[in-house]
Amino acid sequence: MMPIIAIRPQPGAAVTVQQGAAVGLAIDAFPLSEILPIAWDAPPPQTIDALLLGSANAVRHAGSQLQLYLGKPAFVVGPATAVAARAAGFAVAMIGQGGLKDLLAQMPNHKLTMLRIAARRHVAVPLPDGITVETRVAYHAAALPMPQPLVDMLRKDALVLLHSAGSAEHFAAECDRLAIDRAKVRLAALGPRIAEAAGPGWAATRAALSPRETELVALAKEMCH
After folding, report:
1. CB neighbours (10 Å) of residue 154?
2. Does the model's pTM come out above 0.70?
């Protein structure tokens, strides 16, 4: 079986390794980015009705200012973000299954002003009637160079898991910088936009049916044979 490689930052890479082990896949973690906090200006708590969280990183890296909003319900993108929000003391009002766009589409028909804690690179999402979102950038992914052991693995057949458009672009750039043949590398992406960000020329590029870790790992299992 060809090597399967997760390049997402920690602690997410460790979660991917665990998800793979649960279905009999050995996944090697080589994080090519590191999540770092960014100072942000917290809006007055009385102006915010709820939190909108698109990643567990929003909870991990927002800092002490996030505690200003304890008591506000949290609407979160998925189960991992829900775990992080609850661990920080927030009541989770809704857990999405297919990204922030789908989560917002399922929101109750109420007037809410939501605080979105986002990464520096984030995607704008359409808002349903009655929903206002205040966005604050509180963290970013700092790119890391590709280590030599990973370079050596990629010079043979390998499958790489992509979790974000930024990581896809950085991975492609590192492969080109190090003269790694794209035709020897297969890509499994968490979504079509992420797959597109990696560009052309790979041995195979496929996107998971929905942006969930279990779907990505299932795709990897299918592609590695």
Report:
1. 23
2. yes
Q: Are the C-beta atoms of residues 178 and 152 closer than 8 Å to each other?
A: no
161 vs 177: CA distance, rounded Å: 19
181/92 Cα distance (integer angstroms): 45
**DSSP-based three-state secondary structure for 6:** strand
C-alpha distances (whole Å) from 35 to each of 58, 117, 144 are 10, 14, 11
Paired with 92 in beta bridges are: 74
Instruction: Classify 72 in phi/psi space as left (phi over 0), alpha (psi -120 to 50) or beta.
Output: beta
Q: What is the pLDDT of residues 44-75, one digit of tens each?
A: 999 999 999 999 999 999 999 999 999 999 99
**How many helices and strands, by DSSP H and E, does the chain display?**
8, 11
DSSP letter for each residue of 150-194:
HHHHHTSSEEEEE-SHHHHHHHHHHHHHTT--GGGEEEEESSHHH
